[in-house]
Amino acid sequence: MISPTAVEEFKASLRGALLRPGEAGYDEARRVWNGSIDKRPALIARCAGVSDVMHCVNFARANEVLVAVRGGGHNIGGNAVCDDGLMIDLSRLKGLRIDPARRTARAEPGLTWGEFDRETQAFGLATTGGQISTTGIAGLTLGGGWGHLARHYGLSSDNLLSVDVVTASGQFLTASATENADLFWGVRGGGGNFGIATSLDYQLHAVGPVLGGIVAYPFEKAKEVLKLYREFTIAAPDEMASGIVLISLPDGTPFVGIVVCHSGTLAEGERLVKPLRAFGPLLMDQIGPIPYTAAQQLIDGFYPFGLQNYWKSSFLKAISDEAIDVMVGYCAKRPSPMCHGLIEHQLGGAVRRVDREATAFGQRDAEYSFMSLGVCAEASEAEKCARWARDFWDAMQLFSTGGVYVNYLGREADEGTGRIEAAYGREKYARLVELKNKYDPTNLFRLNQNIKPSQATSAAMSA
């Protein structure tokens, strides 16, 4: 229990608001993207600047308070919010400054990728960002970060030039290639384990209109379309990013959809997608020249705020005929029209060419990411959808590399501790533990894809 006096002193130290249960704005502030997460923090600090973040960290450490850190609130496991502890809400920190001459952007962690892209595209610039525009920039970047530009320009974290961090001791540090380089290595893939990012500097690239959109086929053609997609991705240049999904239209019609984004010349993009358009029958062909901001919103409609979501993910060795059979078999018996199977081809290319030891991100040799997504609107259906997603994922493990993308991991209770190590590999994970020992030895920042310090106290490791 924290004394009322301590809470009032904490509130007085903040420039932003401190919300408690029952107060105006509290329920809105505690809600996150995944509708299956319903947690009630004792305190929500809506930070107005770096000093607020530092006060929050110092208060939490002094009072041994459980901490959750919210940027975009899009994490599947709901780590942005907690029961009974302190939610450090960064969502109002939306400062962004573009330097068009240097092609850089200095961004605050409350920005979503939609907001970030809108500003950078005013200068014809962009960097690799998430494929859902409501995703927060900070969480995605710190976990590695891929999207439509990753094969062309590398991961979001590969384009990170520096990051300002408030550590568990309340210290403000800048991490870059020349300053606190060990921390800079760790935050590029290690997630929020080492502190709270309060500013991120990105390298930008010239990105004009892209060739993007969705092409869809009847579900009955799913096996043939998946084989077509396999050939399409094998031949794809770095400029072509794509994904294939087995889901339903809003009217309930099951279909197979391929999402593409080509960031090279439009003429080359048109040539590359010809095989997709020639294969029929087509339910939909919406591929064409579009602004990059539109490409970043192509699949937003499938991932709205507030649905019940349960995800399982892994990397695939290849899209084999046997994997295709399993995918089609499970997606033919989805318990909800919103449940779906997904394969992303966002890796390879520039991602693979980065030195394996340059950052904490541990899966540079992966080519395909697979996801089984148990999604529905009603909480009463959530368990059967989650069970379907788990069974589907289990059946696909025969074709898995054994690795996983850290940003797609759910709650540790669902995933198990070994999955976090699998995201990095044994050697990188050991190095991350050493960094955790240095920057957060009591595991203050543990509501994340947690890298547990070897020196943590029993009190810090509880809850």
Walkthrough of the structure:
By secondary structure, the protein is an alpha+beta fold. The protein has 3 domains: 4-89, Uridine Diphospho-n-acetylenolpyruvylglucosamine Reductase, domain 2; 96-206, 2-Layer Sandwich (Uridine Diphospho-n-acetylenolpyruvylglucosamine Reductase, domain 3); 210-413, Vanillyl-alcohol Oxidase, Chain A, domain 3. 31% of the residues lie in helices and 22% in strands. It is built from 17 helices and 19 strands. The chain has helices at residues 4-13, 26-30, 50-63, 113-120, 137-142, 150-153, 181-187, 222-234, 266-278, 292-295, 321-331, 350-353, 382-396, 412-415, 418-424, 426-439, 458-461, and strands at 18-19, 43-46, 67-70, 86-89, 96-99, 104-107, 125-126, 160-166, 172-176, 196-203, 205-206, 210-218, 240-248, 254-262, 284-285, 288-290, 308-316, 340-345, 368-376. The strands form 4 sheets. Strands 12, 13, 14, 15, 16, 17, 18 and 19 form an 8-stranded antiparallel beta sheet that branches. It has a 5-stranded antiparallel beta sheet with strand order 5-6-10-8-9. Strands 1-2-4-3 form a 4-stranded mixed beta sheet. A hairpin with a 5-residue loop joins strand 8 (160-166) and strand 9 (172-176). Helix 11 runs antiparallel to helix 13. The model is unreliable at 457-463 (pLDDT under 50).
